[in-house]
Design goal:
By secondary structure, the protein is mainly beta. It is 3% helix and 46% strand. Keywords: Glycosidase, Hydrolase, Signal.
């Protein structure tokens, strides 16, 4: 739940040794097929919000329904059409539960997408099927005092023409901005950081000269391009009002999208235009600060794109290919395998009171198939307690898969066992939380009938991490299996094969901030004593306290 990093000494030793148009060579161009087509709805709130306003291409007009739960909205595409995607730009009164439905005749419907956990904002939903009519069947309101409302409902079809340059056009392209921040608070936050396909780096306007309106950032696509979509992942310093503009010469600009009701986080903008340069031109800040973007992604055809580094393929779950394992089957007293594990001695963080001993002095096999990590009440290096921490840094790291461990946790006030992952760019000097942290399991010894699974990133970390506390049986009485199933769409957390928490990439980007978990991470096991999160030890805390690990396995 809170921050836990490698010791400075250990780090020195180690250093010495979703929602966008898919990019790629097989992507097909998309065509907006719903704009200004006949639209009908179950109701309209009043004459100023008719169904036609939901497909007019104007994000300043909207459709809104009567104040009732069961509503629908549909558009007639005019002919049978191969539908590839639906985009919705919700107003505040969004649908929590709805289906996207397809029909050939406007009376018999087939579900192409369904959700009960929508979070509003700007949604881009891949669908597949052929239909003349596309309908939103709305069943649960987010704001029960109102109805449903959106600025635009868009239906897209793949043109069927394959173009090898279709996709992400802005990666690693030259960028300029009205101002840039490059100081100890944001170093560097230059314009190029918005186009590096790295959601943990960002552009920000200069704190001295740039906290003014207007503020802008632009990218040179290298050649004329046909723009189909722009995706902005805002920092909290977002634009309340801004335009997306295109230009042939970076001097004369045309606006292809405009809003005065920007709400930050992730904006998926389906707008068409032609130009070599694309610019976000902000005219009203959301706060006294300036403008800041984690990522500014431009999609379409043409330009002179540089392909970003390829990501590994998503695993198919249940994953069955074992890529890492330690069964801890050594003889009694034998030490963890140093071909798999790096011992991580030193002083901890978070107000913890233990010293992590070197050479696995507090960790050994028990001879019956388990590793024992032991916290002891003994003096060492100015501390009154010792324990053990080890990780797979520079030995094994992984991107995507099922990562699991079977663990028996200790009970006692102030004890804090954990099984977790750190982004391996930490080993190259990227500071926490910009490298990312995935806590698969944390248990507090004061209440071993609860556990935590949590993500930490620049926009959500420490006590504000994105995660879940879940109640269960007394975990100190037996071994239990904690696991994370991780792919490019998100991470699902399990306890004894029961799903306890889902972190959806799309939901996180639209509600908390950038998703920074699409790179390699390494594994960590440790038993902490005391600290800000578990609280202090007391006279009832048993020592030695033992965390037992039956195995650690990774599947892809």
């Amino acid at each position: 739940m809170n921050r836990r990093l490698l010791s400075v000494a250990a780090l020195g030793g180690l250093l010495a040794a979703f929602l966008a148009v898919p990019a790629g060579p097989a992507a097909a161009a998309e065509v907006l097929v719903s704009q200004n087509k006949p639209a009908t709805a179950s109701s309209s709130e009043w004459a100023g919000t008719p169904a036609a306003s939901g497909v007019d291409g104007d994000n300043g007009t909207r459709w809104s329904s009567a104040f009732a739960a069961a509503q629908w909205f549909q558009v007639d595409l005019g002919a049978a059409t191969a539908v590839s995607r639906v985009a919705i730009n919700w107003e505040a009164a969004y649908a929590r539960a709805f289906q996207v439905q397809l029909s050939s005749n406007g009376s018999t419907w087939t579900n192409a997408y369904s959700t009960t956990t929508a979070t509003g904002g700007q949604q881009s939903i891949p669908v597949s099927g052929t239909a003349r009519y596309v309908r939103l069947n709305l069943t649960q309101r987010a704001l029960e005092a109102y109805g449903y409302s959106f600025w635009e409902f868009q239906v897209f079809s793949e043109s069927g023409t394959t173009n090898p340059t279709n996709g992400l056009l802005s990666y690693a392209k030259p960028a300029r901005a009205s101002t840039e921040q490059n100081d100890p608070q944001c170093n560097p936050c230059t314009a190029d950081k918005a186009f590096d396909n790295d959601p943990a780096s960002r552009w920000a306007t200069n704190a001295t000269t740039g906290w003014v309106d207007p503020g802008w950032i632009q990218v040179d696509l290298g050649a004329t391009a046909q723009i189909s979509q722009v995706v902005l992942q805002w920092d909290p310093a977002y634009a309340r009002a801004y335009q997306i503009q295109v230009s042939a010469d970076a001097a004369t600009w045309s606006t292809i999208y405009s809003t005065t009701t920007g709400d930050g986080l992730k904006d998926v903008i389906n707008a068409s235009g032609t130009g070599r340069y694309v610019r976000m031109y902000g005219t009203a800040r959301s706060s006294t600060y300036g403008y800041s973007l984690w990522e500014f992604s431009v999609y379409g055809t043409g330009g002179n794109p540089t392909p970003p580094p390829a990501k590994p393929a998503d695993p198919v779950f249940p994953a069955s290919r074992l890529v890492f394992a330690d069964e801890f089957n050594g003889g009694a007293g034998s030490k963890p395998d140093t071909s798999k594990w790096t011992y991580d001695p030193g002083f901890p963080q978070n107000g913890e009171v233990q010293y992590y001993t070197p050479d696995s002095a507090n960790a050994a096999m028990n001879g019956t198939g388990a590793l024992v990590i032991e916290a002891r009440k003994e003096a060492s290096n100015g501390r009154d307690y010792t324990s053990h921490r080890m990780n797979t840094s520079n030995k094994f790291s992984v991107q995507y898969g099922r990562i699991e461990a079977r663990v028996k946790v200790p009970k006692g006030n102030g004890l804090w066992p954990a099984f977790w992952l750190m982004g391996d760019d930490f080993l190259q000097g990227r500071p926490w939380p910009y490298n990312g942290e995935i806590d698969i399991m944390e248990v507090l010894g004061r209440n071993t009938s609860e556990a935590y699974s949590t993500l930490h990133a620049p926009a959500y970390n420490g006590a504000g991490g994105y995660g879940q506390k879940y109640a269960t049986v007394d975990l100190s009485q037996d071994f239990h299996v904690w696991a994370a199933e991780w792919d490019s769409k998100g991470i699902r957390f399990f306890l004894d094969n029961t799903l306890v928490f889902t972190a959806s990439k799309d939901t996180v980007e639209n509600t908390r901030g950038p998703w920074i978990f699409d790179h390699k991470f390494y594994l960590i096991l440790n038993l902490a004593v005391g600290g800000d999160f578990p609280g202090p030890i007391d006279a009832t805390t048993p020592f030695p306290a033992r965390m037992l690990v039956d195995y650690v396995r990774v599947y892809q």
